[in-house]
Write a structure and sequence with these properties.
CATH architecture: Up-down Bundle
Helix content: 40-55%
Strand order of the largest sheet: 1-2
Distance between the termini: 52 Å
Number of helices: 7
Largest sheet: 2 strands, antiparallel
Number of strands: 2
Order of helices and strands: HHHHHHEEH
Strand content: under 5%
Structural class: mainly alpha
CATH class: Mainly Alpha
Shape: elongated
Number of domains: 1
Length: 189
């Protein structure tokens, strides 16, 4: 990674984490587990998916590094950069992506505090990796299910943008007419 990427990627990852934590602060158990539709994920399931996805991608990046570098793929990767960066936009949410089975929520963490703690742990690991690695991330690739081959730096950007995409999804859940209203602290009027 160049110096700019080494500075920018951890900042992007930290900023998307902050946006996520802000939209899930002080939710009631009913809000955490509300489904706007039986086929849509609850807020808790969105967070669990992010935890699984984070671990899956960091493992995939790590698995790609021992393989031979593929610098010939850089021109293709550059042409996909705009798609990577737009992943966390309202416009991109119009196209639904089906999550791989390995990163779908399973109900592993029922307590919201555990979910948040696990997300923080996974993201801290990712930020440390992005800050400290000396690996040639730009020349090691693995395929995105919709975009094709992305390099390791792009995958770190995907993690940030993917989090933002789920912030939008959580906000959509919260905007649903049947979303439970209420103060999470029953002692506060």
């Amino acid at each position: 990674m160049d110096a700019n990427e080494r500075r920018l990627l951890p900042d992007q990852l930290t900023a998307s984490q902050s946006r996520l934590l802000a939209v899930v602060a002080d939710l009631t158990p009913q809000q955490w587990h509300f489904h706007e539709d039986p086929d849509r994920w609850s807020i808790a399931e969105n967070i669990e998916h992010l935890i699984h996805f984070e671990s899956f991608i960091i493992q995939a990046i790590s698995n790609s590094l021992p393989r031979p570098a593929e610098p010939e793929k850089q021109s293709q990767a550059a042409s996909r950069q705009l798609r990577v960066l737009s992943l966390g936009t309202v416009e991109s949410r119009r196209t639904q992506l089906k999550a791989r089975e390995a990163v779908r929520p399973t109900g592993k963490w029922r307590d919201p505090k555990d979910l948040i703690e696990e997300f923080r742990r996974a993201r801290a690991h990712t930020v440390a990796f992005a800050s400290e690695t000396d690996a040639d991330l730009q020349n090691h690739f693995f395929p995105h299910i919709a975009f094709g081959d992305l390099d390791g730096c792009q995958w770190l950007q995907v993690l940030s943008c993917h989090t933002d995409r789920h912030v939008l999804q959580i906000q959509q859940v919260q905007a649903h007419a049947a979303y439970p209203k209420g103060n999470p602290d029953p002692e506060t009027p």
